Amino acid sequence: MYCVQEIAPAIVWVGGSDKRLERFENMFPLPKGIAYNSYLILDEQTALMDTVDSAITAQFLENVEHVLQGRALDYLVVNHMEPDHCANIEELLKRYPDLKIVGNKKTFQFMEQFYTFSKPENYYIVNEGDELSLGTRTLRFYLTPFVHWPEVMFTYETTDKILFSADAFGCFGSLSGNIFCDQTDFEGVFLEETRRYYANIVGKYGPQVQKVLSKLAQLEINMICPLHGPVWRENLSYILGKYNLWSSYQPEKQGVVLAYASMYGNTENVMNMLASKLSSKGVQDIRMYDVSKTHSSYIISDAWKFSHLIFGSPTYNMSLYHGMQALLHEMAALNLQSRKVSLVGNYTWANASIKEMTEIIGDMRKIEFIGEPLEIKSAMKQEQIPQLDQLVEDIYASISTSVSAAQPSLAKHNAM
Ligand code: FEO
């Protein structure tokens, strides 16, 4: 049975959630599922903003059919040509053969790469700033390449000033009836998953996001409709502020994330000692992760949030323990930068972990190493306590003298 919600006069959310999917892109754990949003505008002409993933095709098609009430679908705007939003294009073409598919040149290139159909007669190619009248409403298109794919564009509805923002401003996690952020406990339920989504899916493209934010600053926006997660209609400066921080690689908070690999608990022991001593000095909200236990996307999300990172790893096969190697390579690939980093290494007969961690992290931009790397041989010994204490002092001094960026607050309801 259809399940839809009106988000503005004659603009209806026709998406759905998949609470069963284990991993997004078969990679990122989804403990709370994922939502796929699609929005249908009813005007003199009808226009659908993106489709959904194949997992919820049946629900989506029923939703669209119900809202159209026998009318034809005139336009399908493809803001993002990734299959989690495009699985139903061919089915819509079968149902509405005169459907005009709105996209840019790259959109149609990717469409024909992913799918076997080719319908150039249905393609409606748009460029930056082009407008499409639906009757009383007008859609304007903004190309936003690499947020996070090259074909991505945003669609701006000029009457109610609604921005359809593709993956931007979206999050992991399914919807549970409440479609607007202000109806949810956003910071309790969605903020962590919004940051994890940003860091891991979009994080590599900070400069491109900065460019888009400058473009959006010229627009009056009343509502942001992403393809995943809840819709923003209040306090838009909050999420725009978060995106500004994240895309400029500024930490949200002065604090410490410790990530370690440990085979027999000895490296873990050192990390526990460091965390405990930092806590005794007054550092709060410390995060510590075993890379073999926690998926890298969560660690990377916290690395995006906090200023100081401590990595600890044994040498393994004359190299770095695989889990740590994978985490650091992923962080480097995502372009994380402007962090303060300290290192702990462990070896029994051959020493490689500190060297390799230094090389990978040293190649990342604007990284400052804090303190001397602490290297233990198999297990921590009493005589190395002064060295460990010095590292704690150095990290604490660095945290104490750093200044946090100004934080956007949900408590303020700033108009755009
Ligand atoms: Fe939600 Fe980039 O696809």
How would you describe this structure to a colleague?
With 416 residues, this protein is of the alpha/beta class. The chain has 2 domains: 5-247, Metallo-beta-lactamase, Chain A (4-Layer Sandwich); 253-399, Flavodoxin domain (Rossmann fold), CATH 3.40.50. 33% of the residues lie in helices and 23% in strands. The protein has helices at residues 57-68, 83-86, 89-95, 105-114, 186-189, 191-202, 206-217, 236-247, 266-280, 296-305, 322-333, 353-362, 385-401, and strands spanning 5-8, 11-13, 16-18, 23-24, 28-29, 34-36, 39-42, 46-49, 75-77, 100-103, 123-125, 131-133, 138-143, 153-157, 162-164, 223-225, 253-260, 287-290, 306-316, 319-320, 340-347, 368-369, 374-377. It has a 7-stranded mixed beta sheet. Strands 17, 18, 19, 20, 21, 22 and 23 form a 7-stranded mixed beta sheet that branches. Strand 21 (340-347), helix 12 and strand 22 (368-369) form a beta-alpha-beta unit. Helix 6 (191-202) crosses helix 10 (296-305), helix 7 (206-217) packs antiparallel against helix 8 and helix 9 crosses helix 13. The longest helix has 17 residues, at 385-401. It starts with a strand and ends in a 15-residue tail after the last helix. The structure holds MU-OXO-diiron (FEO). MU-OXO-diiron binds at residues 80, 82, 84-85, 148, 167, 227-228.
